[in-house]
Amino acid sequence: MSATATSTPPAPKVSGGKGGRTRLSFPVVLLIIAGALLALSAVRAITGAEDVTSAGQIGAALAMAVPIGLAGLGGLWAERAGVVNIGLEGMMILGTFFGAWAGWQTNPWLGVLAGVVGGMLGGLLHAVATVTFGVDHIISGIAINILALGFTTYFAKLWFNSGEAAAKGGSPKQSPPADDITSVTIPGLSDGLHSIEKHHWFFVSDVAGILGGLVTNVSLLTILAVILFALTFFVLWKTSFGLRLRSCGENPVAAESLGVNVYTYKYIAVIVSGGMAGLGGAFLSLVTSHIYNEGQTGGRGYIGLAAMIFGNWRPGGLAMGAGLFGFADALQLRNGGESVHALLLLLVVVLALLAGWKLYRKSFVQGTVSAVIAAAVLVWYLATDSVPTEFVSATPYIVTLLVLSLSAQRLRMPKADGMRYRKGQGK
Question: pTM to 2 decimals?
Answer without folding.
Answer: 0.89
